[in-house]
Fold these 2 entries.
Entry 1:
Amino acid sequence: MDLSIVVNGMTFPNPFLLGSGPPGTNARVIAKSYDAGWGGAVAKTISLESAKVVNVVPRYGKLRSKTSGEVIGFENIELISDRPIDLWLEEFRQIKKEYPKHILIASIMEEYEKGRWQDLTRMVQDTGVDAFELNFSCPHGMTERKMGSEMGEHPDLCEQVTSWVTEVSNIPVWAKMTPNITNIKEPSLAAVRGGAAGISAINTILSVIGVDLNTLRPMPTVEGHTVPGGYSSQAVRPIALRMVSQLALGLPQDVSISGIGGIENSHDAIEFLLLGSSTVQICTGVMLHGVKMIDELKEGLEKFMTDKGFNSVQEVVGKSLGYFSTHMDLVQKMKAAKRSKAGEASRDNEWGQKDITEKTAELTSN
Ligand SMILES: Cc1cc2nc3c(=O)[nH]c(=O)nc-3n(C[C@H](O)[C@H](O)[C@H](O)COP(=O)(O)O)c2cc1C
């Protein structure tokens, strides 16, 4: 089945992209993912001066299910790429030469200075990459240099920086937004005013993964100390789905959305498509399960489309958005369906007749 989709003029062989991070850390791993069947990749974020980027070890922490041990949440305090820009430029050229039909998106980040952003844009664009993703969203480390989410939290900076980039770029520009903000629509709309053709959401959520009760040290612990980091993996998916749906309902129709956050299989990815994403990105899922997870992603999407009678991925995009409403409207709909009795039978006064866990189960939909 044809799983391709055209987004901002780019033809993606399928809607599944490596998210910026370890899965796109150099040309070798990106090539391996294309060979495995991924439709595209957003490379690890790069900047002009890699010498300023110094990572720590350890830099990851996991939240596991208490019963199965499965990883449900993941924190990282990793910075952007520490590889020199010249090496990246050479590798972007090499990847585009060897894989001309796969989509390669360069993720870029710089300090708040027009010349720096425009130099980086021109250099990277010359290599033949298909699009840019502006990293306005890394929530730790880079923020100390006023980069990443320090920009994404301020709509005026998002608009300004995006316009610097779009002034010199002739390929599509996506802005990647931070969830560490009250209303994700505001900086996203600002980036669109600056010329962004698409919005990627979400980056990681600020978090502290836990505290070691033996040493009393919060984790991940580096020489006895830590900083809050970025939370990803399954646990963030409901938050990402909410933000993606808000964006899909609030952005101009022609702005594309790349959905990110906690995707581990085709079921999760289809949810993002149904809520308005034209492509989806996966970072932690690939780190935990490997690039071969693409097989299930493609098979699962094909099966879903066949079962539900969809002829193209584009037809799936945004299909569930019409089912969002207001609370008052839900009450009206229940009344109209003569289910008001069911609502009244679950009034707060009734609590206490049954065990609270039974009541919770009774009011849960899945
Ligand atoms: C170890 C790690 C490194 C990351 N590095 C970057 C990065 O360099 N640039 C970026 O835009 N996002 C980066 N991210 C964020 C991911 O691309 C993604 O937005 C986020 O983790 C949520 O998606 P996921 O649950 O599929 O990982 C990183 C995430 C992780 C876990």
Note: Residues 19-22, 44-45, 74, 76, 78, 80, 107, 135, 138, 176, 203-204, 232-233, 236, 260-263, 282-285 surround flavin mononucleotide (CB under 6 Å).
Entry 2:
Amino acid sequence: MGEPEHTDVVVIGMGPGGEYAAGALAEAGLHVTAAEDRLVGGECPYFGCVPSKMMIRAANLIAEARRVPGLAGSATVTPDWSPVALRVREEATDYWDDKVAADRFTGKGGHLVRGRATITGPGEVTVGDRVFRARRGIVINSGTEPAIPPIQGLAGTPYWTNREIIQAEQVPESMIVLGGGAIGAELAQVFARFGTAVTVVEALPRLVSFEEPEASALIERIFTAEGIKVCTDAPAERISHNGTQFSVHLGMSTLMAERLLVATGRRSDLAALGVAAVGLDASAHAIATDGWMRAADGVWAIGDVTGHGAFTHMSMYQADIVVRDILGQGGEPADYRAVPRVTFTDPEIGSVGLTSAQAAAAGLRVRTGLTQVPYSARGWIHKAGNDGFIKVIEDADRSVLVGATSAGPCGGEVLSALQVAIRAEVPVATLRNMPYAYPTFYRAIEDALKGLS
Ligand SMILES: Cc1cc2nc3c(=O)[nH]c(=O)nc-3n(C[C@H](O)[C@H](O)[C@H](O)COP(=O)(O)OP(=O)(O)OC[C@H]3O[C@@H](n4cnc5c(N)ncnc54)[C@H](O)[C@@H]3O)c2cc1C
């Protein structure tokens, strides 16, 4: 070990939030040392949001083209993955090269250290043979890894996680997707639209099980109509690979496919990170923080590792709070009442705040309103591809919305009005007493509000 190197702040992990916080603190004049083991920018630009949404954009174009007959003539669609794979390489990930992001950070005066960081004491971080002493503190933004379930036979097979599928240069003939959450559902639909025979295997009784039951039913109906096989209540018991094919044993039946995508959630290894050295619980699922993202004296945590939702917008939101806290700028602490999330399937499932089940479990007197998008003026005009619904959850005692789901074309965009209503606690009477632009998709919110009972 060399002599300890002194710095103001060590940022561990340069995910979206870490990158933002490290850059902002460096620009503010602090001596910032950022440790990154893989790629500056984290999962989102290289293996997550950005390339997956490029894939989704391409897959949705195919679906739209297939909707031309009956509405606009005829169209022959020949899916071709090569422009998608190229775009992921050239535009999204620079062939998985983070030079631009790394230079952006060092250009702000930051100090980038490549390698795996471990917290080795209060204010002390070790990367390889270098030891850093942070005068102000440590910001943890170590993110999450794909969680691999302990299914018999799975380890050692050439399964894909999000990291491999994002790099796919060809679409497989067949694929089993283990896990019907947001990542599994999005990628299942992409590859099915490009011609892969896809089966989604979900141990729970429904896909996207963290969403309203209506959202799960909608996605299962759409997937089935598009030829995706959906197996719910189907825990995989054993998995094998014979050199060319995967076999997934589900108790009474066995599925076979060329590829297996494991999308069964995310995990973080707090013990390996060394959090015990600053008095934190290394066996915990996530790092507990206060409203200022403080986890311990001189330790802040942001992003997936805090357990408030594995979203880029959460990581960035929390990073801004940490920057304000470290720079003594004040402002508001974190508020998680109106956290939005979008599953970018087609239809998109956007949701914010509590589901009806969560609101009831919280002891609220719940009223719900639901309207179907195809029955709205815009949905009817839209016709093919108009599936969706808007569901609003009211705390009837306070007459404010506490949750909402917006599923349908542009479901994630329609969500914005509902997010503002929930975050600002706009009285339902006010939401009812305003004109909604005709004929927009968001206008269906008015119908959902009328249906509150
Ligand atoms: C396929 C997929 C699609 C997604 N789509 C969306 C989406 O549409 N919208 C959305 O909001 N979110 C999406 N997400 C989630 C999103 O990618 C993450 O929430 C986001 O990257 C924020 O994570 P983070 O800031 O916690 O850190 P991460 O992005 O996970 O980055 C953490 C970084 O820390 C580094 N690191 C970890 N430990 C150490 C260590 N000890 N020393 C040094 N470096 C370390 C890692 O190498 C990594 O680069 C998606 C994720 C996946 C996998």
Note: The chain has a mean pLDDT of 98.
